[in-house]
Design brief:
Length: 287
């Protein structure tokens, strides 16, 4: 059975922890810093951020302070950040990578993702711009700045376009996955191409916590609804990236490796009908 130290092997041989800590909507400054430091102290070794989150400096400070305080080495941590929409194209991508490294205070990134495939700014030339970004990311891998490169919010046609020119195959597709939003077809397609799938917003929205079925599962397994959601993602073969700024919940969300959901419950959770905010259509996102 997996534990908090378990990893998957990416297609390029790099190993990635099976559970990560998300930082989207964690405000730069004390909030993001304290959340990441609490997560690392609790045992998380996989931290996910992005240039667009505007908290890389605080996330990086927490990572570096933790290493100094704990003696945990850089090689035992896995850090991801992402290329934002206005920085597509070779020159801008190179600059963005260097800026993220500087803000994070790190010598290299474990994983770097194109955050969105079809930015509003480049809507009439998105495939060409993605190819340019990818070429620069490939060069950054060769230069030792990045260990692995991947995608976020890419649908099938975006991936197909990228693969026409890519020399290094993407190792990850990070998409929204939570109860009621399993994106089964896209998950299967991504995995078929050798990618590991990460799921952001694994707790969905408040609507999930109000569902009687989820409450019944909480009673059945003697676990919180959040733990049920995270465990469901793991047993579905995806890497969940739960986010919290509350220390007790940060610890609770990591404590999901000593129970298993029944197969029929996994299926029911995947097909749950609830009023959640669905993943954006990347070809229509207004940014």
């Amino acid at each position: 059975m997996m534990d908090k130290n378990s990893t998957y092997e990416l297609s390029n041989g790099v190993r990635i922890p099976v559970l990560g800590f998300g930082t989207w909507q964690s405000a730069d400054g004390d909030e993001a810093y304290n959340a990441v430091l609490s997560a690392l102290r609790a045992g998380y070794r996989h931290i996910d951020t992005a240039a667009a989150y505007e908290n890389e400096e605080s996330v990086g400070k927490a990572i570096n302070d933790f290493m100094k305080q704990s003696g945990v080495s850089r090689k035992d941590l896995f850090v991801t950040t992402k290329l934002w929409n206005g920085d597509h194209g070779r020159t801008l991508t190179e600059k963005a990578i260097d800026e993220s490294l500087s803000k994070l205070g790190l010598d290299y990134l474990d994983l770097y993702l194109i955050h969105w495939p079809n930015p509003l700014k480049f809507r009439n030339c998105w495939a060409e711009k993605n190819a340019e970004c990818w070429k620069e990311m490939e060069d950054a891998v060769k230069d030792g700045k990045i260990r692995a490169i991947g995608l976020s919010n890419f649908w099938e046609h975006h991936i197909e376009a990228l693969l026409k020119t890519a020399s290094i195959k993407p190792v990850v597709n990070q998409i929204k996955i939570c109860p009621g939003q399993s994106q089964k077809k896209l998950v299967e397609y991504s995995k078929k191409l050798g990618m590991v799938v990460e799921g952001y917003s694994p707790l969905g929205t408040g609507a999930i916590f109000a569902k009687e079925f989820m409450k019944s599962l909480s009673e059945k397994y003697k676990r919180s609804i959040a733990q049920i959601c995270i465990r469901w993602s793991i047993q579905s073969g995806c890497i969940p990236l739960p986010k919290s700024v509350t220390e007790s919940r940060i610890k609770e969300n990591l404590n999901v490796f000593d129970f298993e959901l029944d197969a029929e419950d996994i299926e029911k959770i995947a097909n749950l009908k609830c009023d959640i905010k669905l993943a954006r259509n990347p070809d229509e996102a207004p940014f």
